[in-house]
Amino acid sequence: MSFSQTAFFFSVECLFLLTLLLVTSVEAQELHGFFSSSFTQTRSEVERTITELESWRQSGDLNWNRSLSPSLSYRIGLRGERLQDRSTEENGVRETSSLLLQPALDLTLALPRYSLHTGVRLRELLTDGNREEEARLSDRNFFARLSLNPIGFLPVSFLVDRSTSVDDRHPQARDSKDTRYQVSTQYTARNFNLFYSFSHQATQDNILHQNRNQQNHIGSLGYRQQFFQGRLSLQGNYFANYTRTGEEFLTSGTVEVPQELQRGLRADADLTPLDSTDVPLREEPALLTGTADIPLLLFTAAGFALRVEETVQEIVLSLTPEPPFRLPSNLDSLLTLRVFFSNDTALHTWEEVSAVSQQFDDVESRLILRFPPVTARFFKIYVERNDLGELVRINSILARDIEPVSAGTKRVTSTLLHKIGAG
Fold it and tell me: Alpha helices, DSSP H only, in 117-174?
């Protein structure tokens, strides 16, 4: 069966299933369904090399909401997505596909003095192409949030969150377990507002043979007072954040050490990447929060500033496609990115990093740039070639150093951040 026929029959089957469930449901008003299907085709020519991409995407959502009583309700959800790609290049035709299934179950109990929200999330991603690209990624998540508001006592919220993630690639790239506990409270008395939160997160990485425990304390105290019938307002606040992280390495080898980024950077198209005087870089906070949506246009740049000069050996870009397009598994062959560094606080003069390699992980949808150790404060990624244009976009950027460790090594770091404000 051809690529187009397979996509067509899958669309018909999903549409028939959704229609059947909606028609046969006794309480159809509690069942909500959505189905979409799209097809995109792109063609690019770079130095007489022609690349054609076809992408077919079908997705469906089902949500069943039911109230068992005024205070007790549940939701059952299922999301499915099927992606099929075909690329035609000089070396032949390449076809890949993926199937994503995301079932979910939520239970909510809401009463005047306390509430409970708990649920389970599953995620199965299956990719198919040539033998090296076949993979299955399984994510499991359980969470529970309990909020107490007893009379005469401080309101308290509790959170328990447990996640596992594993794939079947060879060699295996992911096998981890993450558990997080959090308790928080907030109290207001007259003109004062007090908030405190404590969280503990334990991560077990069976690929890197590394255990990580992090404790985080966040507290704030605010004061606000008005005088002269509201004509004068006085306010002040204090914020503190203390984090303690302990790491244990069970085997000898190397470890990826994330570097703390101070701010994200981006620049418009610039034909002289070694000199940014005429096209200065500007701040882009969304690159650090993972909410950026920056197209990888030719000769543009995205980067970051470190707090101090640090050694960097890897830069990771989280990428997303322009819907309904899907990023092909051979994306690294359609892009050419250059890496530059600088210690010039004006961000005008740059030097280029040599021997940069790039690898695209289509399961994680991220592009990893590796190069020899470079110590600097500012880095930027420059788009030298992009056969897909604005269809490829950056969500976030991070930097890592690679350090050797021996078995049994333990490392503890702590940071304290506090701010005082008045107005």
Answer: none
Q: Order of strands across the sheet with 156-167?
A: 31-46, 49-69, 72-89, 92-110, 114-128, 135-148, 156-167, 175-189, 192-205, 210-227, 232-249, 410-422
> What are 78-124's pLDDT values in tens digits?
999 998 888 777 677 878 888 999 999 999 999 989 999 999 999 99
Check: CB of residue 298 under 8 Å from CB of residue 391.
Answer: no
Q: pLDDT tens-digit profile of 57-78? A: 889 999 989 888 999 999 999 9
C-beta atoms surrounding 264 within 10 Å: 23
Cα torsion 383, 313, 395, 138: sign = positive
Please say whether the beta carbons of 301 and 336 come within 8 A: no
Asked if 255 and 208 count as a contact pair (C-beta separation under 8 A), the reply is: yes
> Could you read off the pLDDT of 159-210 as tens digits, one per residue?
999 999 999 888 888 899 999 999 999 988 888 999 999 999 999 999 888 9
CA dihedral 96, 369, 168, 213 (to 10 degrees): -140
Neighbours of 191 (CB within 10 A): 12
Query: What is the C-alpha to C-alpha distance for residues 386 and 105, in angstroms, rounded to an integer?
Result: 41
Structure tokens at 70: 């005024």
Please, what sign has the CA dihedral across residues 168, 92, 327, 270?
A: positive
Neighbouring C-beta atoms of residue 417, cutoff 10 Å: 10
Closest CA to 44 of 325, 352, 350: 325
> Can you tell me the distance from the alpha carbon of 57 to that of 85, in angstroms, rounded to the nearest whole number?
9
Q: How far is CA 60 from CA 191, 294, 327, 390, in A?
A: 50, 27, 20, 26
